[in-house]
Amino acid sequence: MNYDTDQLRKWALKHLWMHNADWSEMAQTEEPLIIVEGSGLRVRDTNGNTWIDINGGYASVAVGYGRQEIADAAYRQMKQITYFPQRTANPSTIQLAVRLAELAPGDLNRSFFASGGSEANETALKIARACQHRRGASGRYKIISRRDSYHGGTGGVLWLGSAAGSPRTDYEPSPPGILYAPQPLAYRCEFGSTSPSQCATRCADEIERLILEEHPDTVCAVIAEPIASGPGAAVPSDEYWPMLRAICDRYGVLLIADEVITGFGRTGKLFACEHWGIVPDIMTVAKGMCSSYLPLGAAIASESIAELFAGENRMLRHVFTFAGHPVAAAAGLQNIDILTKEQLVQNAAEVGSYFKEQLQELRAETAILGDVRGLGLMLSLDFVADRQTKAQFPKSFGFSERLNTQLKNRGLLARSHANHLLNLSPPLCITRSEVDEVTELLRQAIHAVGKSWKEKS
Ligand SMILES: Cc1ncc(COP(=O)(O)O)c(C=O)c1O
Description:
- It is a single chain.
- The protein is α/β, with parallel strands linked by helices.
- The chain has 2 domains: 33-63 and 343-456, Alpha-Beta Complex (Aspartate Aminotransferase, domain 1); 68-341, Type I PLP-dependent aspartate aminotransferase-like (Major domain) (Aspartate Aminotransferase, domain 2), CATH 3.40.640.
- It is built from 14 helices and 15 strands.
- Strands 4-10-9-8-7-5-6 form a 7-stranded mixed beta sheet, sandwiched between helices. Strands 1-2-3-13 form a 4-stranded mixed beta sheet. The chain has a 4-stranded antiparallel beta sheet with strand order 11-12-15-14.
- A hairpin with a 3-residue loop joins β14 and β15.
- α4 (68-80) packs antiparallel against α11 (326-341) and α5 (91-103) crosses α11.
- The longest helix has 25 residues, at 432-456.
- 47% of the residues are buried.
- Pyridoxal-5'-phosphate binds at residues 58, 116-118, 121, 150-152, 225, 229, 258, 260-261, 286.
């Protein structure tokens, strides 16, 4: 099919409001690319150029682009029934809820569906607060999240976590009762810890301190990603999650694990909580559950929480029109089947660990690459102007823009952010030879930026 790229780009710049993007800047950089096809980790634009999407959409394309079976499953469901009359259910949505109950750890057995991660987390917060009410603890309304975390862009969850480069001043005032704890990122530990273990312990202790300072009777829940992507694949040392679970239990605080990125195999286990053998009270999932073929998310609650919502005057008053959509559910079920049959979770563990080794070799030869971290296929490169001090590049150097340009020049689609990070979350179907190809392109791009930094400094 022929496309008029110039016309499409002009229309996009005039009428389309893109994610986190300034259309006047895009006009200068000949963006946006207009993508029309994809297969595996590659996509093709309207001019016939092929690109490697090294971040798999938004770390969300688990099985890769272009899977006919998912399109077929959605089509079959659409022909059968596209939506549901009120107070009815349908086989695909029911089967997906059953599948999640089978797959999720412990007694996380009841799913409220959503159209994405933000809605899933909004749902989790509502369930958590309503749960405390039903337990007779109405004063427990405060939510603890961690700095540098991200839980979504909608009105409530927007205020969880934080990101240095994304101030929220435009949307103030902030709601009351959101508390912030440190991120257990050993490479840049807020406490200046000298080991990952010390960092994890101090960060978990700080959550306990916060609960005590605020008084446990006011604290509803802690929400955290098992591995946060905002600060660049922040894998906490093994102490952290069991400590967090124990602290929450000690003070009657609910633990919400945001597995929106980590869920469905990204870290080499089906759910990242499994790395530490803990079961949260509520787990949220989205991206990998449907590999972004259709919008789909869920908040999955434990049996003991769910049972508080049955009986007179107890139901959860909560609805999203498109939540539990049968077509998304059918696509999600097919996606999960592919993940299982093709052993993509295992692939994420094995090829992810190979990828990390290659990146660590790259670090050894590249002064500006300060840290390589992550688990499975959730990896991150943390760049520094000075390895010793871990100082970041001056804003005027425009590190992220430079790296993004070098990557694009080599056919790699990935976005460096925060002036020092590059997240790599490719589709879970990536092979070793594709890793070799990507590593070589990364090497060239990083060396080019390193060279210009050397010349400047
Ligand atoms: C950990 C995490 N939670 C929640 C969200 C929000 O998900 P969505 O963009 O589908 O609303 C994201 C999105 O990137 C995320 O990374």
